[in-house]
Amino acid sequence: MAAKRVFFFGGGKAEGNGAMKDILGGKGAGLAEMTNLGVPVPPGFTISTEACNLYYRYRGKLPQDVKAEISANLSKLERVIGKKLGDPKNPLLVSVRSGSKFSMPGMMDTVLNLGLNDKTVEGLAQKSRNPRFAYDSYRRFLMMFSDVVLDLPKGNFVDIFDEKKLERGAAYDVDLVAEDLMDLCGKFKALVKERLKREFPQDPLVQLELARDAVFRSWNNDRAKYYRKTNGIPDDLGTAVNVQAMVFGNMGDDCATGVGFTRNPATGAKEFYGEYLVNAQGEDVVAGTRTPHQIRDMKKALPRVFDQLMRITAKLEKHYKDVQDFEFTIEGNTLYMLQTRNGKRTTAAAVKIAVDMVKEKLITKEEALLRLEPQQIDQLLHPVIDPKARLDVVARGLPASPGAATGAAVFHAERAVEWATEGKDVILVRKETSPDDIHGMDVARGILTAKGGMTSHAAVVARQMGKTCVAGCDAIDVDETTNRFMVGGKIVHEGDFISLNGTTGEVILGKAPLIAPAMTGAFGVFMSWADAVRRLKVRANADTPRDARVARDFGAEGIGLCRTEHMFFAEDRIPIMQEMILARTMENREAALSKLLPMQRDDFKGLYREMKGYPVTIRLLDPPLHEFLPKREELMVEVTKLELIHADRSIIEEKKRLLERVEELHEFNPMLGLRGCRLGIYYPEITRMQARAIFEAACDVTREGIRVHPEVMIPLVSMAGEMRAQKEIVVAVAEETMRRHKKKFPYTVGTMIELPRAAVTADEIATEADFFSFGTNDLTQTTFGFSRDDSGKFIQNYMNRSELCPQCGAKLEKDLSCAVCKVTYTKRAENILQADVFATLDQVGVGQLVRMGVEKGRSTRPGLKVGICGEHGGDPKSVEFCHRIGLDYVSCSPYRVPIARLAAAQAVLREKKPGKGGKK
Length: 920
Ligand code: PEP
Ligand code: MG
Prior knowledge:
alpha/beta; eight-stranded mixed sheet; eight-stranded parallel barrel; 34 strands; elongated
C-alpha cells in the first residue's frame, strides 16, 4: 500500500496526532491533537511535508496518487460539514495554510476564503443573509489569492480599496457597505485581467490546486530561506498544507477573531494575554489596520465564550506543558480554535515561565533547563537605560520587546544593513514591518513601528530575535519616502540618534546612556539548577581586573586564559616594550624588562584579588614581536618625509635604526614564525621576567590573606622539548621567589595544545605538562590551513554556495538562474561548510585532534586537567562536544559564561536522553 500523505481531522477524531510534527508540520499536528482532545476545531485535512518534498522532487508536479488522496479527503470534508466546494447554493469555503515542523511565523503563505467565485458568493450571501459579509470575504479572497498565488502584489488592491474608502468617506473598512464591496470585487477582477491577461480562476478545484502549490513553493521564498538560515532549520523538511473549513469572524457582531497567549510572552507573568476584534477575520488582528481590543475585555462583551476560551486554553497549556500561543474565531457565538502552538517568548519570560512551571509541578527542573537555547541568554545580558539619566522622551508606544537600544534612525531594511555593515548602530523605524524587513531587523539594535499591536509582526519577530522593540507608537508620523518621522512638532531625519526602551515603550531623542543588566530572581534560580547538573567547569578569558569581575559576576570559576600580550599594548607600556625589542644585548633587554616587571606584577595582583583563590591561567607572551613595532611601510614613508624636510639628523637616525630592526624582525609568515614558546626559548629573559611577575604578585597577594592559584601556560608548543625548556625556567623562578618571600602556594605549569603536532604527540608532551588547554583558534587555523585573519570571505562562500552561481558567485534568482551569466541551473551547488569553523568547532576534523590530545595526554598522565580556551569555549554546540570528550572545563569571554554554564548542563541532560531538544 502506498504511504499515506493526507491526514483528516475533525468530527471529534483525527488521523494524526501531536507527535507527528515531522509529517504534519506544527500546525497540522496541533490541529490533530486539539481534535483528539475534544477541542472545537473546524474540520479539514493536512497534506503532509512528504507531499511537499515529492512536489519538489517532481519539479512542481504532484504524483497522481497524492492528488487522489486529496480528492478523497475533500469529499470526506464535504460530507462531514454538509457543504460542497463550488456549490452555488451552499458553498464550502476553505483556508489553505502552510505549516512546517518548526514554527516560521509569517514566512510562508496562506490563502483564506478559497472556494468563492461569482456564483458561490451569491450563495454565501443568501445562506448567511448577509451580502456584506459575502462580498467582504470575496474581496479578501481576490486580494489574497492574487498576491500569494498569482504574484500580483497586495499593494495594487490596497490602493483601489483606499480610493473606495476615500470616495465613500469611510474611516474604517467596516464602514463600507455590500454594494461598495461588490463594486470592489469587480474592480479587483478587472485588475487581474488587465495585468495578467487572464481571468481570475473561477473553478474552486483549480483554485485549490493553485493555492496548494503556491504554499508548497512558499517554503523556498527568500524570507523563509533567510529565516531557516538564521534559525538553524534544515532546508529539506518542507511544509505541510492544511486545508480547513472556514469559520467566519466577520459575519456580524456576535462574531470575532483573536490571538492570544496563556501567559505574558514579554514578561512571563501568569496572565491571560492577547487581542481580539469583533466582526473581523484573523488577518485584521495581525495586520495592524484596526487597533484590537485587549482579550480581557472579551469577558464583558462575550462572557460565555470568554469562559470557554479560558477553559480550553488552560487545558491546552496543561496538555502541552508549555505556554500556548493560540488563534480563535467566534462565529455566531460559537468558539472555534484555529491553532495552538508553544508560544514564542522573550528570554526573560522563558526563564520565568520555566521556573514557575517547575513550581507548579507542570515540568521537572531538567525539562526547564532544556527549554532555553543557551544562546538566548544573550538577551538577558543586554543593557538597560541608566535610570538616573535625563531623557528627552518624545513618545510612548507598546513595550513590545524589552531591553534598551540606541542608534541612528533608518527607515528601510536595506539602509539598516548598509549602515550596520559599516559598523554603525541603527534603529529601524517603519510604519509597520513585514517579513520583507527581516534582514533589516536582524542587524538593527532596535525596532520602532507606528502601527500594530503586541502581536504584530514587528513585536513577534523582535521578541524572538531578542531585539528591543517599541511597536504601535501612533504619536510618530513616519514618512518612508522622505526618510523622517514627525513627533510632537519635531522632525527626526535619517541618521539622527534615537533610543528605545523596550520595557516601558518610551521613544527617546538622542543617545541614552545604557548600563549592563544584573542577573537576579528567576534567572538566578534557573542558573543554580544548571550549575547543579553540569560537570564541566566554566572559566573566562580575561586580561584585566574589570573583565575578571564581570566574569565572576556571571559565574566564572576561574580564568582560563589571560593573554599577557594585551597588557603590553597600553600607551605607557608600548615604548618600554619597543625598547626591549630593539635591544641588541641581553643586558639592554633585561634593563627594559625590569621596567616592565612591576607593571606586570600589578596586573597579576589585580587578577588574583578578583579571583579569590580560583585558578588563574596566565599565558606567557605569544604574538610575534613585530606586532609591538610600527609598520614597516609606515616607517619607510616617515623616514623619507623626514629626509625631505631635512629634519634633525638624530631623529632620522633613530627612525632608521627602528626601521632596520623592524626589517630584521620581518617575517613572511609571522603566524608560523618566532612566536609562542619559541620567543621564550629564544629570549629566555622574557619568560624569566613574566614568571617573576606571576610569582611575586602571588606572594604579595597571599600576604594580603587572599588565596592564589596561578597556572602558567606555555603557548604554541609542538614538541615535548619546548615544554621542558620553558618549564625549567618557570619552576626555577617559582621556587626561588617563594623561598625569597617565604610563601608557599599551589601552582602548575601546563601548555596550550594549538598545533596538530602537539595533539598527535600529546602523550609525550603530557609527561612535562601539568595541564592542557586547547587553543582551538590556532588549532583550527593550522589544521585547515585557513588563516584566522583572512578566511572570512571564502568561508562565507563555502557556507552559502547553494545560494550562489557556481561560475561567477552572484546570488541566484528564485528559479536558479544567474542574471550575470544568463544561465539557469537544474540544481543548487553543495554548501562546503555548514558553519563558520572559527565559531563552531569542526568536530569531524579539529575535534578529532582534540579528542586524540585528551586521550593521549591522559595515557601518560592519568587525571591530566584539560580545558579549552579558543573562541569555541562559548559556543553551545562546541561546549556539548567538550563535555562528551571529557574535558574538565571550558573558558570563554565573560559575557558568554552563563551561556556556557547552561550549555554544559544541557550536555549532561542530552547525554541522559539522547535525541532530546535542539533543532539539529
Ligand atoms: C587559541 O589559539 O585558540 C587561543 C586561545 O589563543 P589566541 O587566540 O590568543 O591565539
Ligand atoms: Mg593561539
